[in-house]
Amino acid sequence: MGTPGQRQKWRWGQFDKLTAAHQASGKKRSAVGWSLLRQPTQFHLFFLPIYCKLMVNNFYISVMQLRYLLVLSLLMMTGIVSAQSSVIPYGKNAKAGKYADIRGFKMYYETYGTGEPLLIIHGNGGSIGDFNFQIPYFEKKYKVILADSRAQGKSLDNGDSLTYEMMADDLDALLDVLKLDSCYVIGWSDGGINGLLLAMRHPEKVRKLAVTGANLWPDSSAIDPYHFTMVSHAYDSTALLEKTTNHLRNLKLLHLLAHQPHITTEQLGTIKCPTLVIGGDHDIILPQHTLLIAESILKSYLWILPNAGHATLIFNSEAFNKTVYEFFKNPYRNIEGPARSQ
After folding, report:
1. At 263, which CATH number?
2. Average pLDDT of 131-148?
3. Residue 298 sits in which domain range?
4. What's the mean pLDDT in 305-317?
5. Residue 210 backbone phi and psi in degrees, to 5
6. Residue 26 within any structural domain of the chain
């Protein structure tokens, strides 16, 4: 990962990419908001539920770091980061959105385009609105289905528990409601975990799978140690707060990050569909862990993006979209024997 100074220089480079993309869209932006984003930070947009003045168990988030996260999260969730000039409010589009009764709660979902079905799954604390770079591209080629996962976005659920297995089964039930026997799947971060579990628990539903930034278990062998420690402290601190509805929701989401999932490589071996396993070389999910996922799936390709972090489908959206589309479109090749020399 390099020295702190090198990591900070890399983060600023990623921010400059985002700035250039936004400027290319021709949209107006808040000078104040973007100046806040330029502040130095050790944090990553991986963490959305953050609280100010958390000083429990020696855990403290500076105001500067908090400003960065809150503004960047807001930009992502409202779609301001999109280089698309579209005014379609993805995630809040009344024309495309519906609710489905799914396993004890109402799941909000939107659909775009026509053709073969493609399910896109967001990450922890995210929503449909995270995919401003993907929807306009893939809706020209597929019927794109996106849903707010249980207890996230507009899919409210005040139940006590939340697991990746529950969310994978929710997506299976949604496909049944939509009368789809199978689909292509893209999953980002926690959505990648859900995609893996969907392919394991409901293999008939997944034709091909592309996951980016997924992990199999919650420890520092899979997750960058700095960020894993921050998540663990955030969970412990949040658990001490007043048990309001909002805090309980955030606690469920942080529990996913700090204590789940628990997937074995043997379980990954049951996945039958061709799978493209993606990660950044500076991802929060360590590259060696991403390699392990790819090696454990029988029909897999591995793609590690250089100079990339966790948000591969935002900062590297053009390459991401094109590569995933080519993977879906072309037959899987088993590259063994003499083919390895080609």
Report:
1. 3.40.50.1820
2. 98
3. 43-57+88-330
4. 97
5. -125, 120
6. no
